[in-house]
Protein backbone atom coordinates (compact mmCIF):
# COMPACT_ATOMS: atom_id res chain seq x y z
CA UNK A 1 0.00 0.00 0.00
CA UNK A 2 1.41 3.37 -1.02
CA UNK A 3 1.81 5.85 1.84
CA UNK A 4 2.28 9.62 1.87
CA UNK A 5 5.93 9.43 2.89
CA UNK A 6 6.67 7.38 -0.26
CA UNK A 7 4.69 9.85 -2.34
CA UNK A 8 6.53 12.93 -1.09
CA UNK A 9 9.92 11.36 -1.90
CA UNK A 10 8.68 10.43 -5.38
CA UNK A 11 7.29 13.94 -5.99
CA UNK A 12 10.47 15.62 -4.77
CA UNK A 13 12.63 13.67 -7.24
CA UNK A 14 10.11 14.18 -10.04
CA UNK A 15 10.06 17.95 -9.45
CA UNK A 16 13.76 18.45 -8.77
CA UNK A 17 15.24 16.04 -11.31
CA UNK A 18 18.21 14.99 -9.11
CA UNK A 19 18.68 13.23 -5.80
CA UNK A 20 20.78 16.10 -4.47
CA UNK A 21 18.15 18.75 -5.14
CA UNK A 22 15.39 16.50 -3.81
CA UNK A 23 17.41 15.89 -0.64
CA UNK A 24 17.83 19.65 -0.15
CA UNK A 25 14.10 20.18 -0.58
CA UNK A 26 13.23 17.37 1.84
CA UNK A 27 16.00 18.34 4.30
CA UNK A 28 17.47 14.81 4.37
CA UNK A 29 20.72 13.41 3.02
CA UNK A 30 21.04 12.29 -0.58
CA UNK A 31 21.58 8.64 0.37
CA UNK A 32 18.24 8.59 2.18
CA UNK A 33 16.42 9.77 -0.94
CA UNK A 34 18.17 7.11 -3.00
CA UNK A 35 17.27 4.35 -0.55
CA UNK A 36 13.64 5.42 -0.27
CA UNK A 37 13.28 5.63 -4.04
CA UNK A 38 14.87 2.20 -4.57
CA UNK A 39 12.65 0.66 -1.89
CA UNK A 40 9.55 2.15 -3.53
CA UNK A 41 10.56 0.84 -6.95
CA UNK A 42 11.29 -2.60 -5.50
CA UNK A 43 7.86 -2.70 -3.88
CA UNK A 44 6.27 -1.88 -7.24
CA UNK A 45 8.53 -4.23 -9.19
CA UNK A 46 9.34 -1.58 -11.78
CA UNK A 47 11.41 1.57 -12.27
CA UNK A 48 9.78 4.96 -11.69
CA UNK A 49 12.68 6.99 -13.12
CA UNK A 50 15.12 6.75 -15.98
CA UNK A 51 18.52 7.55 -14.54
CA UNK A 52 21.23 9.42 -16.40
CA UNK A 53 24.51 10.81 -15.03
CA UNK A 54 22.96 14.27 -14.77
CA UNK A 55 19.30 13.78 -13.96
CA UNK A 56 16.32 11.59 -13.16
CA UNK A 57 13.41 11.60 -15.59
CA UNK A 58 10.10 9.82 -15.17
CA UNK A 59 9.69 6.37 -16.65
CA UNK A 60 6.40 5.44 -18.33
CA UNK A 61 5.19 4.02 -15.00
CA UNK A 62 6.32 7.17 -13.19
CA UNK A 63 4.48 9.33 -15.72
CA UNK A 64 1.31 7.31 -15.22
CA UNK A 65 1.58 7.65 -11.41
CA UNK A 66 2.41 11.36 -11.28
CA UNK A 67 -1.17 12.65 -11.34
CA UNK A 68 -2.25 10.19 -8.65
CA UNK A 69 0.68 11.13 -6.46
CA UNK A 70 -0.23 14.81 -6.78
CA UNK A 71 -3.83 14.00 -5.84
CA UNK A 72 -2.49 12.22 -2.75
CA UNK A 73 -0.47 15.34 -1.90
CA UNK A 74 -3.54 17.55 -2.25
CA UNK A 75 -5.59 15.13 -0.14
CA UNK A 76 -2.98 15.11 2.64
CA UNK A 77 -2.94 18.90 2.69
CA UNK A 78 -6.74 19.02 2.78
CA UNK A 79 -6.83 16.54 5.67
CA UNK A 80 -4.22 18.61 7.50
CA UNK A 81 -6.36 21.73 7.14
CA UNK A 82 -9.46 19.93 8.40
CA UNK A 83 -7.50 18.44 11.31
CA UNK A 84 -6.34 21.86 12.40
CA UNK A 85 -2.85 21.46 10.95
CA UNK A 86 -2.88 25.00 9.70
CA UNK A 87 -2.50 28.49 11.06
CA UNK A 88 0.27 30.37 12.84
CA UNK A 89 2.43 29.27 15.78
CA UNK A 90 4.51 31.86 17.66
CA UNK A 91 7.87 30.63 18.97
CA UNK A 92 10.09 32.61 21.31
CA UNK A 93 13.74 31.55 21.52
CA UNK A 94 17.30 32.86 21.29
CA UNK A 95 19.12 33.70 18.07
CA UNK A 96 21.61 30.82 18.22
CA UNK A 97 19.00 28.21 19.21
CA UNK A 98 16.94 29.44 16.28
CA UNK A 99 19.89 29.07 13.92
CA UNK A 100 21.04 25.67 15.18
CA UNK A 101 17.75 23.90 15.88
CA UNK A 102 14.56 25.84 15.14
CA UNK A 103 15.21 26.72 11.50
CA UNK A 104 16.07 23.08 10.59
CA UNK A 105 12.90 21.99 12.41
CA UNK A 106 10.82 24.47 10.43
CA UNK A 107 12.27 23.22 7.16
CA UNK A 108 10.98 19.74 7.97
CA UNK A 109 7.69 21.15 9.22
CA UNK A 110 7.20 23.07 5.97
CA UNK A 111 7.52 19.88 3.95
CA UNK A 112 5.02 17.98 6.06
CA UNK A 113 2.50 20.69 6.92
CA UNK A 114 2.71 23.57 4.45
CA UNK A 115 -0.44 25.20 5.89
CA UNK A 116 1.32 25.87 9.20
CA UNK A 117 3.15 29.19 9.43
CA UNK A 118 5.49 30.37 12.17
CA UNK A 119 6.30 33.67 13.81
CA UNK A 120 9.80 33.42 15.28
CA UNK A 121 10.63 35.84 18.08
CA UNK A 122 14.26 35.84 19.24
CA UNK A 123 14.90 37.15 22.74
CA UNK A 124 16.93 36.05 25.70
CA UNK A 125 14.60 37.53 28.31
CA UNK A 126 11.75 35.45 29.73
CA UNK A 127 8.74 35.46 27.46
CA UNK A 128 5.44 35.66 29.25
CA UNK A 129 3.84 32.48 27.91
CA UNK A 130 1.14 32.75 30.55
CA UNK A 131 -0.26 35.80 28.77
CA UNK A 132 0.07 34.33 25.28
CA UNK A 133 2.81 36.64 24.07
CA UNK A 134 4.04 33.46 22.38
CA UNK A 135 2.56 29.99 21.94
CA UNK A 136 5.73 28.25 23.07
CA UNK A 137 9.25 29.16 24.11
CA UNK A 138 12.63 27.45 23.91
CA UNK A 139 15.20 28.68 26.35
CA UNK A 140 18.05 27.79 28.67
CA UNK A 141 16.41 28.79 31.95
CA UNK A 142 13.73 26.60 33.49
CA UNK A 143 10.74 28.71 34.59
CA UNK A 144 9.16 28.32 38.01
CA UNK A 145 5.55 28.71 36.81
CA UNK A 146 3.68 25.52 37.75
CA UNK A 147 0.81 26.44 35.44
CA UNK A 148 2.94 26.00 32.31
CA UNK A 149 3.91 22.76 30.58
CA UNK A 150 7.70 22.45 30.85
CA UNK A 151 9.80 19.81 29.11
CA UNK A 152 13.55 19.44 28.70
CA UNK A 153 14.38 19.24 25.00
CA UNK A 154 18.10 18.59 25.32
CA UNK A 155 21.27 19.33 27.24
CA UNK A 156 23.52 21.21 24.83
CA UNK A 157 27.27 21.70 24.86
CA UNK A 158 29.07 25.03 25.01
CA UNK A 159 32.79 25.71 24.97
CA UNK A 160 35.43 28.44 24.93
CA UNK A 161 36.52 29.86 21.56
CA UNK A 162 38.78 32.55 20.18
CA UNK A 163 39.82 33.71 16.74
CA UNK A 164 43.27 32.87 15.27
CA UNK A 165 43.95 36.62 15.17
CA UNK A 166 43.26 37.02 18.88
CA UNK A 167 45.47 34.05 19.77
CA UNK A 168 48.29 35.37 17.59
CA UNK A 169 48.12 38.70 19.39
CA UNK A 170 47.46 37.55 22.97
CA UNK A 171 48.68 33.97 23.07
CA UNK A 172 46.95 30.75 24.03
CA UNK A 173 45.46 30.89 27.55
CA UNK A 174 46.79 28.41 30.10
CA UNK A 175 44.29 26.00 31.57
CA UNK A 176 43.65 26.51 35.26
CA UNK A 177 44.96 30.09 35.39
CA UNK A 178 41.49 31.68 35.48
CA UNK A 179 41.96 33.22 32.02
CA UNK A 180 44.04 35.97 33.63
CA UNK A 181 45.39 38.46 31.13
CA UNK A 182 42.71 37.67 28.59
CA UNK A 183 39.70 39.63 27.34
CA UNK A 184 36.35 37.92 27.85
CA UNK A 185 33.07 38.31 25.98
CA UNK A 186 30.19 37.53 28.32
CA UNK A 187 26.50 37.64 28.98
CA UNK A 188 25.63 40.36 31.53
CA UNK A 189 26.06 39.13 35.12
CA UNK A 190 22.35 39.62 35.93
CA UNK A 191 21.32 37.34 33.06
CA UNK A 192 23.78 34.44 33.53
CA UNK A 193 25.49 34.94 36.91
CA UNK A 194 27.15 31.50 36.98
CA UNK A 195 29.37 32.38 34.02
CA UNK A 196 31.00 35.10 36.10
CA UNK A 197 32.41 32.51 38.49
CA UNK A 198 32.87 29.60 36.08
CA UNK A 199 33.40 30.37 32.41
CA UNK A 200 33.47 27.20 30.34
CA UNK A 201 35.18 25.23 33.10
CA UNK A 202 37.60 28.00 34.09
CA UNK A 203 37.15 29.49 37.55
CA UNK A 204 37.11 33.28 37.31
CA UNK A 205 38.26 35.97 39.74
CA UNK A 206 37.52 39.54 38.72
CA UNK A 207 37.09 38.63 35.01
CA UNK A 208 38.17 41.14 32.40
CA UNK A 209 34.83 41.34 30.58
CA UNK A 210 35.56 43.74 27.72
CA UNK A 211 32.10 43.15 26.21
CA UNK A 212 28.78 42.22 27.81
CA UNK A 213 25.97 41.33 25.42
CA UNK A 214 22.60 39.58 25.71
CA UNK A 215 22.87 38.02 22.22
CA UNK A 216 25.07 34.99 21.67
CA UNK A 217 24.92 35.63 17.94
CA UNK A 218 26.66 38.96 18.54
CA UNK A 219 29.06 37.38 21.04
CA UNK A 220 30.03 34.90 18.32
CA UNK A 221 30.60 37.77 15.87
CA UNK A 222 32.73 39.57 18.45
CA UNK A 223 34.75 36.40 19.04
CA UNK A 224 35.32 35.99 15.31
CA UNK A 225 36.51 39.58 15.06
CA UNK A 226 39.25 38.97 17.63
CA UNK A 227 37.72 41.03 20.42
CA UNK A 228 38.20 38.31 23.03
CA UNK A 229 37.31 34.80 24.24
CA UNK A 230 33.66 33.75 24.06
CA UNK A 231 31.62 30.89 25.50
CA UNK A 232 29.67 29.66 22.48
CA UNK A 233 27.29 26.94 21.32
CA UNK A 234 29.59 24.12 20.21
CA UNK A 235 27.43 22.63 17.46
CA UNK A 236 27.76 25.94 15.59
CA UNK A 237 31.22 27.12 16.66
CA UNK A 238 32.98 23.78 16.06
CA UNK A 239 32.23 24.09 12.34
CA UNK A 240 33.26 27.74 12.08
CA UNK A 241 36.66 28.10 10.35
CA UNK A 242 37.11 31.52 11.97
CA UNK A 243 37.07 30.07 15.49
CA UNK A 244 39.50 27.94 17.50
CA UNK A 245 38.29 25.71 20.35
CA UNK A 246 40.12 26.30 23.64
CA UNK A 247 40.40 23.45 26.14
CA UNK A 248 38.22 20.97 24.17
CA UNK A 249 38.03 18.71 27.21
CA UNK A 250 36.26 21.47 29.15
CA UNK A 251 32.57 21.62 28.37
CA UNK A 252 29.75 23.74 29.71
CA UNK A 253 26.37 22.00 29.60
CA UNK A 254 23.09 23.89 29.42
CA UNK A 255 19.61 22.39 29.72
CA UNK A 256 17.22 23.62 27.02
CA UNK A 257 13.56 23.78 28.00
CA UNK A 258 10.36 23.79 25.98
CA UNK A 259 7.68 25.89 27.63
CA UNK A 260 4.07 25.66 26.50
CA UNK A 261 0.79 27.08 27.73
CA UNK A 262 -1.53 24.21 28.74
CA UNK A 263 -4.42 25.66 26.74
CA UNK A 264 -2.46 24.95 23.56
CA UNK A 265 -1.16 21.44 24.21
CA UNK A 266 -4.02 19.85 22.27
CA UNK A 267 -3.84 22.20 19.28
CA UNK A 268 -2.82 20.08 16.30
CA UNK A 269 -0.64 22.77 14.74
CA UNK A 270 1.25 23.28 18.02
CA UNK A 271 1.75 19.54 18.49
CA UNK A 272 3.17 19.33 14.97
CA UNK A 273 5.63 22.13 15.71
CA UNK A 274 6.66 20.55 19.02
CA UNK A 275 7.28 17.22 17.29
CA UNK A 276 9.46 18.88 14.65
CA UNK A 277 11.45 20.69 17.37
CA UNK A 278 11.98 17.49 19.35
CA UNK A 279 13.25 15.74 16.23
CA UNK A 280 15.65 18.59 15.46
CA UNK A 281 17.14 18.63 18.96
CA UNK A 282 17.41 14.84 19.16
CA UNK A 283 19.35 14.82 15.86
CA UNK A 284 22.16 16.63 17.71
CA UNK A 285 21.63 15.44 21.29
CA UNK A 286 19.97 12.11 21.79
From TrEMBL:
Per its UniProt record, what Gene3D superfamilies does this chain match?
A: 3.40.190.290, Winged helix-like DNA-binding domain superfamily/Winged helix DNA-binding domain (1.10.10.10)
**Protein's UniProt keywords contain NAD:** no
Q: Where is the signal peptide?
A: none
CDD domains to which the protein is assigned, alphabetical: PBP2_CrgA_like (cd08422)
Which keywords, in A-to-Z order, does the entry hold? Answer: DNA-binding, Transcription, Transcription regulation
Read off the SUPFAM superfamilies from this record: Periplasmic binding protein-like II, Winged helix' DNA-binding domain
UniProt-listed Pfam families: HTH_1, LysR_substrate
Spell out the PROSITE patterns in the cross-references. Answer: HTH_LYSR (PS50931)
Domain HTH lysR-type intervals: 2-59
Q: PANTHER family recorded for this chain?
A: HTH-TYPE TRANSCRIPTIONAL REGULATOR (PTHR30537), TRANSCRIPTIONAL REGULATORY PROTEIN (PTHR30537:SF3)
Q: Into which family does the record put it?
A: Belongs to the LysR transcriptional regulatory family.
- Mind telling me what this protein is named? LysR family transcriptional regulator
To which species is this protein native? Serratia ureilytica
Amino acid sequence: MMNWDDARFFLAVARCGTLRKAANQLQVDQATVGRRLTALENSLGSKLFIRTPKSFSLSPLGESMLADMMKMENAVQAIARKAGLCGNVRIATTDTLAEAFVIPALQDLRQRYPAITVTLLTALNITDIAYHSADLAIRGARPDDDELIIKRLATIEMGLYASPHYLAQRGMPVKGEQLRGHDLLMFPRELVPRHWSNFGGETLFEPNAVLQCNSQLLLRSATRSGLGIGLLLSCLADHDPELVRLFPESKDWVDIWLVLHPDLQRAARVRAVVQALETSFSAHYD
